[in-house]
């Protein structure tokens, strides 16, 4: 009971409410919260085929060097939450708006990267297509499956969902079967803690507990390694970062609104907010301009 009360207090203090039961992403008055991240995974558009080849052996399937970038440059990691219209709620993006953004990415030759690819780019300097984005969704709303997934599938896009493990199969959150289907179809499921805790308010032991338990739960349920985490509310400090590392996470994202780059630190990567209120021009600005906030 005490635990529930504490959780309720945390929720009410939050920029948007989360708690599995009776939860809706609520309006946040802080413009920093509604964010989106998207990412495109189709590399085919950047593949070049030799035009004067006489044999199939001459077909070039490599992305041209000038179309690639290295980790001296950054990348937009887009942050979404719910993909479902709700009046006056920027944390929920209407499906039509989301579709318009994905179509823009597709039509304009963007690639979506998995978090494995993002990790390799930032840590190992493995080059990526210049027009790359990473699509992430926080909390694990059922509408990610019902509304976003069909669009992502249509365009062959990769994405990552950061799931609150205590919410699986409850209320408006994803069910285990949905998570399994998503994981098998290019939508990677990673951790967003057990109860959406404000991590820097917890003791180190409690930090480890929620970080490790959520990781192990997803690993058991989905039969795969969980290596990545989004800190709830983007909330972290040095101790949180140490605990994430000690729990076996290799990369973590925050909600700091700008492009991700090497200088962020691999366990404190920035993400780009895409509000349900922003129009396509604002979306284009955010995916084309690293310092779009300035
Ligand atoms: Zn969250």
UniProtKB/TrEMBL annotation:
- Judged by the first EC level, this protein's enzyme class is hydrolase
Q: Where would you find this protein in the cell?
A: Secreted
Q: Where is the NodB homology domain?
A: 131-294
Which CDD domains would you find in this protein's record? CE4_NodB_like_5s_6s
* First-listed, main subcellular location of the protein, grouped into a coarse class: secreted
* EC number in record: 3.5.1.-
Where is the signal peptide, in residue numbers?
A: 1-17
> Cross-referenced InterPro entries, in alphabetical order?
Glyco_hydro/deAcase_b/a-brl, NODB_dom, Polysacch_Deacetylase
The UniProt keyword set, sorted, is: Hydrolase, Signal
Provide the residue span(s) of the region labelled Disordered.
29-64
Biased region (Low complexity) positions are 30-58
SUPFAM superfamilies per UniProt: Glycoside hydrolase/deacetylase
Record carries keyword Zinc: no
Designated name of the protein: Poly-beta-1,6-N-acetyl-D-glucosamine N-deacetylase
Biological source species: Clostridium homopropionicum DSM 5847
């Amino acid at each position: 009971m005490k635990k529930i009360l504490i959780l309720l207090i945390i929720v009410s203090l939050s920029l948007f409410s989360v708690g599995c039961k009776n939860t809706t992403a609520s309006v946040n008055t802080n413009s920093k919260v509604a964010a989106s991240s998207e990412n495109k995974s189709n590399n085919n558009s950047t593949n070049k085929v030799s035009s004067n080849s006489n044999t199939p052996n001459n077909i070039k399937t490599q992305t041209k060097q000038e179309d690639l970038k290295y980790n001296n440059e950054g990348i937009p990691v887009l942050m979404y939450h719910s993909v479902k219209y709700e009046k006056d709620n920027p944390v929920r993006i209407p499906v039509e708006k989301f579709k318009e953004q994905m179509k823009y990415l597709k039509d304009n030759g963007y690639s979506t990267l998995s978090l494995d690819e993002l990790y390799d780019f930032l840590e190992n300097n493995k080059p990526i297509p210049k027009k790359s984005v990473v699509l992430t969704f926080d909390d694990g709303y059922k509408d990610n499956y019902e509304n976003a997934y069909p669009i992502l599938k249509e365009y062959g896009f990769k994405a990552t969902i950061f799931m609150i493990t205590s919410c699986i199969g409850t209320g408006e959150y994803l069910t285990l079967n949905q998570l399994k289907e998503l994981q098998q179809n290019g939508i990677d499921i990673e951790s967003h803690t057990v109860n959406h805790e404000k991590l820097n308010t917890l003791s180190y032991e409690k930090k480890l507990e929620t970080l490790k338990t959520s990781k192990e739960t997803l690993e058991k349920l989905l039969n795969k390694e969980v290596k990545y985490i989004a800190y709830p509310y983007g909330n972290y400090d040095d101790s949180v970062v140490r605990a994430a590392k000690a729990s076996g996470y290799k990369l973590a994202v925050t909600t700091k609104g700008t492009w991700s780059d090497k200088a962020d630190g691999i366990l404190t990567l920035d993400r780009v907010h895409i509000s349900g209120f922003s129009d396509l021009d604002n979306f284009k600005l955010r995916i084309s301009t690293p310092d779009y906030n300035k």
